[in-house]
Amino acid sequence: MNSIVLFDGICNFCDASVQFIIKNDPKGNFRFASLQSDIGQKLLKEYNVPADVDSIVLIENDKAYCKSAAALKICRHLNGLWKIAYTFIIIPAPLRNLVYDLIARNRYKWFGKKESCILPSPEVQSRFLS
């Protein structure tokens, strides 16, 4: 499996989420690109996701997932008890996405944002698409 996670590259919460995924994905199943990058924009277009999407996006098995579906499908592949979070997929997406949207709407206010994307450390740099 080589799934791709597209994330908001200037969001502190999103950056922390990517670091969390890397830490809990020692097999290196996930690759990453910021939504703002050329490759991120190309993938959004390729998978028919609106360019102005305000969500984490998971591309897996030739399909794009957004919002809570993306987050839960990512959890399914992480080490430890995070796999259990995937059981929340049984909750209807509109209900799950209410919580997701609340966090997404307030992420800059609660967690701040960066002026630019942070460069990954050399040991994980190969997992970032460019």
Structure annotation, total helices:
4
Give the spatial strand order of the biggest sheet: 2-1-3-4
**Into which percent range does the helicity of residues fall?**
25-40%
Main pleated sheet: 4 strands, mixed
Mean pLDDT: 89
Number of domain units: 1
InterPro entries: DCC1-like, DCC_oxidoreductase
GO molecular function, one term: protein-disulfide reductase activity
Protein name: Thiol-disulfide oxidoreductase DCC family protein
Pfam family, one: DCC1-like
What tags apply to this protein structure?
alpha+beta; DCC_oxidoreductase; 38% helix; 4 helices; 130 residues
Explain the overall architecture.
With 130 residues, the chain is an alpha+beta fold. The protein has one domain (3-119). 38% of the residues lie in helices and 14% in strands. The chain contains 4 helices and 4 strands; from the N terminus they run βαβαββαα. Strands 2-1-3-4 form a 4-stranded mixed sheet, sandwiched between helices. The longest helix has 19 residues, at 93-111. The model has no long low-confidence stretch (mean pLDDT 89).
